[in-house]
Structures are given as C-alpha cells and as structure tokens.
Recover the amino acids of this structure.
C-alpha cells in the first residue's frame, strides 16, 4: 500500500495513495461536508458541497473524486472554500420547500444541519419556487416528496450497486429534474428502505414511521436485529416506552450500513403488540388464567418433580439470548436431570440472498447450540423429542420462547403432553397446549448476547422498560422526556409490562427445586459462560462492546458444566 | 437549645419633635386621609373583570382557521417548552398541509406562561390568549385537549395583530 504525505488544514497526514481526499480526511477525523458522497457507494460528484482548495490548482476541486498525491496541500476551511460552500447551499435552498415542520427528516437532515453550519441563511431568490409532486407512495414502504429532493442520486446508486436492481431514475433536466421509478414499477426491492436512511434530506421517508414521532423525542439504543441469523446491527428508536422504528447501524463485519425491509418492519411490532402476555398463567378448568409469579413458579417446581427424568424434555430457543439458553440448559441437565434437550430450527431454505438475508430465520441458533442446548449422550434431538411426545415416552415439556405449534406436525404432538410449560412474550397457537405460561421479556427488554451465523457474539440491549428493569436505574438510553417526566406525567412512560428474562424465571424454579444459581444480572451469567464455555473464554460484555466480537473456536464446543 | 435573650434596641438620638410623637401621628394620618379621596384603581374582581392588553400572556391556545387548526404538529412547541407541558401526536390529513395534530394536550399545571411556544411556532398556530382564569380542583381537569385549546381566529385577532406589529 504505497502511502503519500498530504497536508490538510495544516496537519500532515499519511494516506493510502488510492484514497480520495474526502476519505483520507475522514480517516484522520477531518470532516468535509458532502451530500452525494457515501462511503459505501460509487462516487458521483454532483452536489459540489465537498469543494476544497488544493494549492497549485487554479480552481476549487471536489474532495470526493480527487485522489490524494504526494505533497498535496489541501484547505477545507479557508475563506475561498467557505464562500463557495455558502454559494452551493444558496443554490440548494432556491427551490427547496420550507417543509421542515411537516418533514419526518427534520432533526436528522443533512440539509438542515449544513444550513446552520455552512450557509449564511440569506437568500436572494424572490421568484416562485419550482413545484413538483409531493406525497408520492414510491414503493410499498417508502414515501417520496419530489420538491425536497436535492438530486444527489444516492438512492439510485444504492439500488443499482447494493440492492442490485435498477429501480430508480432521474427524468427531465435542469431544475425540473425529478426522481422516479419506471412506468408501472415500484421501489419494492427487499432493501428498499435503506434509501430512507441514505437520502440526505426528507425526500424519501419511511412510510411505516410516517408522522409517528419527531426524532428528537426518541431514545436510541444499540442492539441487533432479530429477523435472521445475520444479526444486523441496529438502533431501536423508543418514545413513551414504545418502539417506533428500527434503523441500521454501521458494522462492516456484519451488515455494512444496511438492513433488510423485513428486519426493519417485522421485528419490533410484537414488542408493542396488544397480544403480549401480561402475567404468568396457569391452566385451570381448561382455560389459562393469570396468576402471580410465585404461584406459577411453585406449581412448575412441584409438577416437574412428579415426572421421571427420562419423561421430561427441554427445548431452548434460538430466539432467546445465550444467557437464557445457558441457564436453561444447566437447569435441564442439573436440576431436571434430563438429556433430552435441544431447540427447534427455523430454516427457510431458499429464502436467502447474497446480500444480508439468511435462510435461518432465528437470530441465535448458533449461540443456543454453543452454550449447550444440545442433546446429552443418548439424549433426544428435537425431532426425537416430538416423536417421543407422540409415542407417549415424553410426558412433560419445558420450552423457552418459540412458537412451536407453527412448525409442521408439532401442534398435534403438543396436544398429547401431560405437562407443558412455555415462556412466551405474545399469544400464539402454542399457548393452546400450554399448562403454564410465563411472561417472557423480549429482546428489547433485556440484556444479553446472541451469536450470528458467522460466530460473532453481539449484544442485545434493553430499550423498553418492564417491571423488572428501570430506565434510569438500569442505565437505559434516555430521551429528554424520559429524563424529566415526573410520576404523574403519563407520557415518558407508556405501558410497563410484567415480563421477566427467561434465565431469571428458570433460576427461580431451580431455586425452589433445590439448586441455587447465583446470578443477579445478565452479565454475571455471561461471565460464567465466559469461564465455562471454551469458545466464549475470556469474553465479557465490555469486550463484546457495541459491535460484537468473533467467538474463539469455530467448532460446536461442548459445555463443561 | 435555649432561646437567646433578645436585646431591645432603642434609638437614642431622636429629636425633641420626634420624641413628642404627636406631630408624627398627624403626618401619618394626613397621608391616610388624603388617600381616601384620591380615585381608586382596585378592580372589584370577580364582579368586574380585568381586560388585559394585547401584550398579556394568558393561557396558550390553538388558532382555528377555516374550521381546522393551523397547527401542523411539528412538535417544536413541545420541544421548546421549558416546563414540558405540551404533548403533540401528529397524524396524516388529506389537506395540503399533510400533517395535523391527532392529539394536542397542554398540561396547564405545568405551563408557566412563558410564551416560548408562541415564539417558536412556524405556523403562528399557538398563541398566548388573554384568558387568565385557570383554577382546578383536580389535576386531570388541567389537561387541556384540542377541544379546549382550539379558538376561532376572530377571537384572537388582537394578539395576532400585536405579534405582527412587533416582529
Ligand atoms: S431522493 Fe434523496 S437520495 Fe434520492 S436523489 Fe433525491 S435527495 Fe438524493
Ligand atoms: S438481514 Fe436478517 S438480521 Fe439483517 S435486517 Fe434483515 S432480517 Fe434482520
Ligand atoms: S409549534 Fe406550532 S405548528 Fe408546531 S406543533 Fe406547536 S402549535 Fe403546532
Ligand atoms: S407558555 Fe411556555 S410553559 Fe406554557 S406551554 Fe407555552 S412554552 Fe410551555
């Protein structure tokens, strides 16, 4: 990698000679304003916002397409550059509508921010603005406002280069240029909503999030998507204790800067849903009735004792965290003494692509197996357990959060069980067969880790409070409303559900059955995993950080419990 | 703890006239009696009501024009409000403005009548009215929804004129 010495704003830096000025500057923490340039897309050079002065060059040059060269001296802040930027901003604002009050981008808009930073805010334009179509449903999940578009072409390049489909195009010329889809077509690729994130203005907006909240009213929590085994890094936007949107977070080892539309739309609504399980339930006279935690826990502990070890099976879950699965397998092996332990796979063969989407539709199947949710010696695997239930060999089943009844042929087997305990966050077909249901916290309500298909451990962080966790006391991200709401303000709160992390529920049952697990928090469970599971050795929440870290060994490790 | 004995301070340098004290009483009474014959400016509230000037900051209200609120639910008033009194939830409308407040609530117990909401509003949709009679026996009554906040533009024209003339 031949490197060259470049001076930017008086600081000498060393940069790879293949880099452009904007890239080299960024690597050294110098920000050059830009609209059309994006680190993950090809260079277009149309917005002219990144103009810089290069000594010995007569005219200003755009930093996004000029490569660095030995001895180059670049100025990004001198009077000439500042003046040019103001002129560029004045051009952008000529036809831009004054839509900020009704625009969902307001608050995270590059044009707004740059207007404050790089424009004098003075316009010499008295004529009528050019009017274009507004409120266009350009795709099933994306709204388009042509007046707000600054014609940067990021969205076009995203579709061409990342999503791999040419769906967007400019038509007309000059100030009448307009973005559009081909006649009769829609912006409907599986990654279409990423254009919302990269559009520097509010021309393309999220149809699902439309007018739900202003961005400054939300708190943002770093966590990972639950839609498939990729585990895209995301931010969860929460207001009044309700998740309103998910956005991708850059992690070049996992998801680059993107996420798929399925992940963005379908993996948070169940947290807010009406059909959440509100309390533990026990089946009495054929119907599930809500009871207190102590009653349900005591009931499970006493019922499970009445079965032979070989009659009990335990199903972990690829939707639960490593912490949940780890404590659960210890419970199954040490307390219940069963070897029949496994979890259900959710692989949809063929429903995958070369970009992000994986066929495995669960976020943590690798982690579940890694922490020991695998059959013991001569123990039954998932299929054998279902078969065993059908034949009457397995009489009691304890399952973590998973809609088992939705899997082919499983519902019929579940109906044969004598005793069925399940953890669930939402109502589902599975609950029809359950004798005891525990209200489980969702991924957005607990601390934990998950392992993606590439053996990368990543953190799940709570964004929504339950009765178990408190926003301020447990170090959640806080919005202004969260910080200053008092106990008699109804906003800033939203519903606070009585759900608990699965590992905690399991540990309480174990305690009643005579085995005390000494964990108080999820990171204590993780520390034990890091001591006892070879591939996790030496890890901690601190080391996993916000972007995750690869597991040590690339083989299915055994648990030395 | 025992109470400390307080010491009585007497002024020692009073003049003879002051020590006679009767002239002082006459002086005081003269002032009192003179006041009795000057015109009063006491308002006999509630029989008589104070009519505030246009610059007065009474309770914030939403301007209703052509039967709809001007507000586009941008949330700026809610953001600027130092007392966190305002809650706005936007919704979509068929009208040209696209957005409207599905819910707009001001907690009148929180409001401190600072007028920041009026100042920040890009639509001149929330303004300070001349209403000042706000007493509640129940905190729930202090939550003013759109029903209480919306006021036809004709009724707040004086304030709007005042704002324009002082821009
Ligand atoms: S819609 Fe947005 S991303 Fe696309 S060209 Fe216009 S401003 Fe750029
Ligand atoms: S690819 Fe998978 S992990 Fe990524 S956003 Fe889509 S569903 Fe979520
Ligand atoms: S600032 Fe004005 S337009 Fe915006 S929400 Fe408040 S009243 Fe409505
Ligand atoms: S007058 Fe001040 S305190 Fe009252 S609602 Fe408006 S901004 Fe809030």
């Amino acid at each position: 990698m031949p490197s060259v010495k470049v001076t930017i704003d008086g600081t000498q830096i060393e940069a790879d000679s293949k880099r452009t000025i904007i890239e080299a500057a960024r690597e050294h923490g110098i920000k050059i304003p830009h609209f059309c340039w994006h680190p993950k897309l090809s260079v277009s050079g149309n917005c002219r916002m990144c103009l810089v002065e290069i000594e010995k060059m007569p005219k200003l040059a755009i930093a996004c397409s000029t490569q660095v060269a030995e001895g180059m001296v670049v100025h990004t802040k001198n009077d000439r550059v500042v003046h040019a930027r103001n002129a560029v901003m004045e051009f952008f604002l000529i036809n831009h509508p004054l839509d900020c009050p009704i625009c969902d981008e307001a608050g995270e808009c590059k044009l707004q921010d740059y207007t404050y930073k790089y424009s004098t805010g003075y316009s010499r334009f008295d004529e009528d603005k050019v009017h274009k179509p507004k409120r266009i449903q350009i795709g099933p999940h994306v709204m388009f406002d042509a007046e707000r578009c600054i014609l940067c072409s990021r969205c076009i390049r995203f579709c061409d280069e990342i999503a791999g489909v040419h769906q967007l195009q400019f038509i007309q010329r000059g100030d009448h240029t307009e973005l559009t889809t081909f006649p009769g077509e829609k912006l409907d690729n599986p990654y279409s909503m990423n254009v919302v994130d990269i559009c520097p203005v509010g021309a393309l907006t999220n149809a699902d999030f439309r007018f739900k909240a202003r961005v400054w009213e939300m708190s943002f929590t770093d966590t990972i998507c639950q839609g498939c085994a990729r585990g895209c890094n995301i931010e969860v936007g929460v207001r009044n204790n309700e998740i309103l949107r998910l956005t991708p977070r850059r992690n070049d080892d996992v998801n680059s800067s993107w996420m798929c539309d399925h992940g963005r739309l379908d993996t948070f609504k169940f947290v807010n849903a009406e059909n959440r399980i509100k309390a533990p339930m026990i089946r009495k006279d054929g119907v599930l009735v809500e009871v207190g935690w102590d009653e349900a826990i005591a009931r499970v502990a006493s019922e499970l004792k009445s079965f032979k070890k070989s009659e009990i099976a335990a199903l972990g879950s690829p939707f639960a965290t490593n912490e949940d699965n780890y404590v659960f397998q210890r419970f199954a092996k040490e307390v219940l003494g069963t070897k029949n332990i496994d979890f259900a796979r959710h692989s949809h063969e063929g429903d995958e692509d070369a970009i992000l989407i994986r066929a495995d539709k669960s976020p943590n199947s690798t982690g579940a197996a890694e922490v020991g949710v695998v059959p013991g010696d001569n123990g039954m695997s998932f299929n054998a357990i279902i078969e065993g239930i059908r034949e009457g060999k397995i009489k009691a089943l304890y399952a973590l959060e998973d809609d088992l009844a939705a899997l082919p042929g499983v519902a019929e087997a579940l109906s044969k069980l004598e005793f069925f305990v399940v953890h669930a966050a939402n109502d589902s077909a599975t609950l029809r067969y359950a004798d005891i249901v525990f209200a489980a916290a969702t991924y957005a309500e607990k601390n934990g880790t998950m392992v993606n298909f590439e053996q990368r451990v990543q953190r799940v962080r709570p964004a929504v409070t339950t009765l178990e966790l408190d926003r301020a006391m447990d170090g959640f991200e806080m919005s202004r409303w969260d910080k200053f709401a008092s106990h008699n303000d109804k906003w800033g709160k939203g519903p606070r559900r009585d759900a608990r992390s699965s590992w905690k529920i399991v540990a309480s049952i174990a305690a009643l059955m005579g085995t005390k697990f000494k964990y108080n928090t999820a990171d204590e469970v993780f520390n034990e995993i890091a001591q006892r599971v070879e591939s996790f050795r030496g890890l901690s929440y601190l080391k996993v950080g916000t972007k995750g870290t690869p597991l040590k060994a690339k083989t299915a490790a055994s648990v030395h419990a | 703890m025992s109470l400390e004995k307080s010491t009585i301070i007497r002024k020692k340098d009073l003049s003879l006239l002051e020590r006679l004290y009767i002239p002082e009483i006459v002086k005081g009474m003269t002032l009192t009696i003179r006041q009795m014959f000057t015109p009063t400016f006491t308002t006999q509230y509630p029989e008589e009501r104070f009519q505030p000037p246009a610059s007065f900051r009474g309770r914030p209200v939403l301007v209703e024009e052509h039967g709809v609120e001007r507000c586009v639910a941008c949330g700026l008033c809610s953001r600027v409000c130092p007392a966190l009194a305002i809650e706005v939830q936007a919704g979509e409308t068929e009208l040209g403005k696209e957005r409207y407040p599905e819910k707009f609530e001001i907690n009148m117990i929180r409001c401190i009548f600072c007028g920041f909401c009026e100042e920040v509003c890009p639509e001149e949709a929330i303004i300070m009215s001349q209403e000042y009679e706000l007493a509640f026996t129940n905190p729930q009554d202090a939550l003013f929804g759109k029903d209480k906040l919306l006021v036809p533009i004709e009724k707040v024209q004086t304030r709007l004129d005042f704002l324009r003339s002082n821009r």
Summary: The mean pLDDT of chain B is 91. Chain B touches chain A through 19 residues (CB under 8 Å).
